[in-house]
Amino acid sequence: MDKEEKIVNTDNTESTVNTECTEHADDKATKANENTGATENTEDAPKEETLEDKLTLAEARIAELEKERLYKQAEFDNYRKRIIKEKADLILNGGRKVLEAMLPVIDDLERALQHMEKAEDVEAVREGVDLIYKKFLKVMEAQGVTQMDTKDADFNTDFHEAVTQFPAPTDELKGKVIDCTEKGYMLNDTVLRYAKVVVGI
After folding, report:
1. Residue 181, SS3?
2. Which of 68, 78, 113, 192 has the most crowded Cβ, counting Cβ within 10 A?
3. Around Cβ 173, how many Cβ atoms within 10 Å?
């Protein structure tokens, strides 16, 4: 049964209060506060665990990145050393292919020299030397080396080096190459040696 309590008012009248209802209300408020505290505690705990987990994951990631960095650095050092070695080998042996191609020409020259000692026909010797010369040009062409054609060409500083100027015999030859004192050569699309020429003025 509900408990009732009489209270004397200031005007000497009595009021009846249900104390049990008040006690129930107080109990509910206390439980609500306890539940709120419990909820707050349960929310705080996972947050602390999540931060610790994040810290652990971050440390693991940092260690992984550091390991990867060391691996990449070692790989780059090996690559750099290999490139340096390859460049050194290229400098020392880069002309091997060209030199091997020239060896047969040297053999022909040696045979020609031996033949000259006994030869009486100068014309035959000249023809033999001419054949060796043409063979040598073919070997050079196979390596990408070609002669510049300077006959009646317009003077061009990209390919020619003027050693002197000479009065042109005709107006058409002014500013053109009228003589070549030293042939020029191209290596593929680049100048291997400039042609030394006489320019008409």
Report:
1. strand
2. 192
3. 16
